[in-house]
Amino acid sequence: MKVPVWNPAVEFLEREALERLQLANLRKTVAWALKTPFYRRRLAEVGLHRPEDIASLRDLRDIPYTTKEDLRESYPRGLLAVDLEQVVRLHTSSGTTGMPTVIHHTQADLDAWTELVARCIVATGASRRDVFQNMTNYGLFTGGLGLHYGAERVGMLVIPASSGNTSRQVQLMRHFQTSVVHATPSYLLHLHSALMDEDTDTSPPSLRKAFIGAEPHSEETRRKIETLFEIEAYNSYGLSEMNGPGVAFECLYKTGLHLWEDAYLLEVIDPDSLRPCAEEETGEIVLTTLQRQATPLLRYRTRDLSHLVGGHCPCGRSHRRLARIKGRSDDMLIVNGVNVFPSQIEEALMKAPEVGTNYLIQVEKRGALDRLAVKTEVHAALFAGDARVLSDLRERIAERIRAAVLVKPSIELHEPGSLPVSEGKARRVLDLRPAF
Ligand code: ADP
Ligand code: ZN
Predict the structure, then answer these.
(1) Cα 341 to averaged position of ligand 2 atoms, centre (Å)
(2) At residue 10, does pLDDT exceed 80?
(3) How many CB atoms are located within 10 Å of the residue 245 CB?
(4) CATH number of 1-329
(5) Comma-separated ranges of CATH 3.40.50.12780 domains in the chain
(6) With a 6 A CB cut-off, is 169 part of the ligand 1 pocket?
(7) Going by CATH, does the domain composed of 333-431 fall within 3.40.50.300?
(8) Which residue has the higher pLDDT, 93 or 30?
(9) If you write DSSP's letter for every residue of 348-362 in order, what string do you get?
(10) Is 235 in the pocket of ligand 1 (CB under 6 A)?
(11) Cα(182) to centroid of ligand 1, in Å?
(12) d(CA 329, CA 335)
């Protein structure tokens, strides 16, 4: 198979040359960072005053971490490294876990970001012959404009549909023969239910690929999307602090997400001891921007959990791969003392063929104990039959989740379309326990 590629010179760069490029870019980044009072102070504390003080990539380890709190405390402009006149845009995070963080961009920053997104798109086999419908929010959220400019650079016909308005999305797909979409996995599943309600019985035949990201999802959910729409779905990872989409993406082979290492310096650390993780060992992703002028970030702790995939990808790209993101370290629920990741529940749930496209995890306090409940939509036909079928299914799902997370939840089964839907990132967890 011929591997589609946007920028072969960089994407296939040998490791040694790639690391030389990283070192040069790290020095530039430190020079930009030293223009901000925040990093001048931080770096002075460890004796780093000039970019030349970085002799090798190993010296990165002397640099202190930057956290989400640092970004929040520097709000709105404490991390700006260029004159305001050079800034052409700002974006913020979605604020899923608190006050949003803000990132400023120069024109060069936007161009570099666009280049990374173009690489991702082409790596999946999409091309200028495709019609691309971008179903994520256009605005401060980076998924809209980020993918938009990348797709235009590739030369695709871009439909800037933005999020929501499902019937119009369907109409656009049918009228303009959309072949590639970008959406959150939860929204695509919702879109599929809407298509089924339409009674036209099929998804648009022109559709062949989806880019799915912005929220944690399991391999089972990807497969479900692929089967329901009869398409290929590629995982897209990014965060506004690192521009947005375009940080790491799956190629045609789907063996993990290639992270563009000329643009981001990757570390995976144990979030408690802060020591580096071994390959294949799960830890927190830490990223350093290597190309961004306006808001350089050094050793940013993303709180996202993943691990490095060993070996080589058949596509031949030298940029290393991250495994599917397991969730955020702060997503973890502690239920009666047991650590539970929502992604583990999703994986177990989606293995049941009767399960539909939407679910919700709820934790409550009952007396001294925590009570875990999982509400899930199941196929409508099940409600017409014998009640015993439903109670057997509840028991089977509860057992499957217990085997995965060691806590047995109560299961509520709902008709399709009855659980709340979000147009952006899905809210899968409702923690109703009182805060201390
Ligand atoms: P917020 O952090 O407020 O949600 P962002 O819009 O910047 O704001 O979202 C980035 C976050 O979304 C990432 O840090 C990660 O937790 C999550 N995310 C993005 N892409 C993926 C993906 N493919 N898989 C799992 N989680 C993802
Ligand atoms: Zn690959």
Answers:
(1) 28
(2) yes
(3) 29
(4) 3.40.50.12780
(5) 1-329
(6) no
(7) no
(8) 30
(9) HHHTSTTEEEEEEEE
(10) yes
(11) 15
(12) 15
Ligand 1 mean position to 167 CA, how many Å? 26
Question: Taking a C-beta distance cutoff of 8 angstroms, is the pair 215, 232 a contact?
Answer: no
For residue 248, give the ligand nearest its CA. 1
Start and end residues for every CATH 3.30.300.30 domain found in the chain: 333-431
Atom 19 (ligand 1) nearest CA? 214
In 3D space, the residue among 233, 194, 242 whose CA is nearest the CA of residue 212 turns out to be 233
Residue having the nearest C-alpha atom to atom 10 of ligand 1: 239
Better-scored residue on pLDDT, 167 or 331: 167
Residue 235 CA: nearest ligand 1 atom is 23
- CA dist 209 and 126 (Å) reads 8
Closest ligand to residue 137's CA: 1
Q: What is the pLDDT of residue 199?
A: 65
Read off the tokens for 45: 């504390």
Least-confidence region, from 78-92, 364-378, 412-426: 412-426
Q: Is 13 helix (H, G, I), strand (E, B) or coil?
A: coil
